[in-house]
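ARCHIVE CARD
CATEGORY: sequence design from structure
SOURCE FIELD: tokenized fold
FIELD CONTENT:
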């Protein structure tokens, strides 16, 4: 008596995962804390988007991946990873929300430092030295200073090598307060205050 073989079923792991689902999970894990969007998964695995959608739903139900939303859309992360700062919006965000109190506090420190130095102009490097014990980078301090420029609290100027800029290289970017008292006691106006 001859025995007939059954047609082979789609290959799956011992947990009932199809090969496509395992491939998708592996791709998501490879992205660590940055995770991957559906588009990135489709492009990175060459699996059709409909199957990617089905697999991500299955993986979420199995608690193998989680979903994190940000301005760039939904990202899927393996549960063993925490979302990286870039995914959460950067250093200035906590749990996806802008940390306004931290930003305002750093802005105050920068303004006080410029006032304490009693210089007409201050470079980024001088202000950065105030934060060298903190975990802030030079670029993050630059972002705070740029924010103060937009708030019209300080002004960004380039050194011309003379008078108040004599200690600086020509063309070096520096900052000065707007509308604060100068050393002579007279209030300085902003750059456009004299324009009618």
């Amino acid at each position: 008596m001859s025995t007939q073989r059954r047609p082979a079923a789609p290959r799956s792991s011992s947990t009932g995962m199809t090969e496509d689902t395992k491939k998708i999970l592996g791709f998501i894990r490879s992205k660590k804390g940055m995770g991957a969007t559906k588009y990135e998964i489709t492009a990175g695995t060459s699996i059709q988007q409909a199957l990617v959608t089905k697999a991500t739903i299955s993986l979420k139900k199995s608690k193998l991946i989680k979903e994190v939303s940000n301005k760039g859309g939904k990202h899927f992360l393996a549960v063993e990873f925490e979302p990286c700062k870039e995914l959460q919006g950067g250093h200035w965000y906590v749990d996806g929300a802008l940390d306004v109190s931290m930003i305002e506090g750093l802005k105050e420190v920068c303004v006080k430092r410029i006032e304490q130095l009693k210089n007409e102009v201050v470079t980024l490097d001088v202000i950065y030295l105030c934060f060298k014990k903190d975990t802030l980078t030079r670029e993050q301090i630059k972002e705070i200073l740029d924010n103060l420029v937009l708030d019209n609290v300080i002004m960004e100027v380039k050194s011309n090598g003379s008078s108040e800029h004599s200690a600086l290289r020509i063309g070096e970017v520096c900052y000065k307060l707007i509308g604060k008292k100068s050393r002579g006691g007279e209030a300085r106006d902003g750059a456009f205050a004299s324009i009618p």
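CARD ANNOTATION: The beta strands are 65-70, 73-78, 93-94, 97-98, 122-123, 154-158, 173-177. The first strand starts at residue 65 and ends at 70.
SHELF: design records, drawer C
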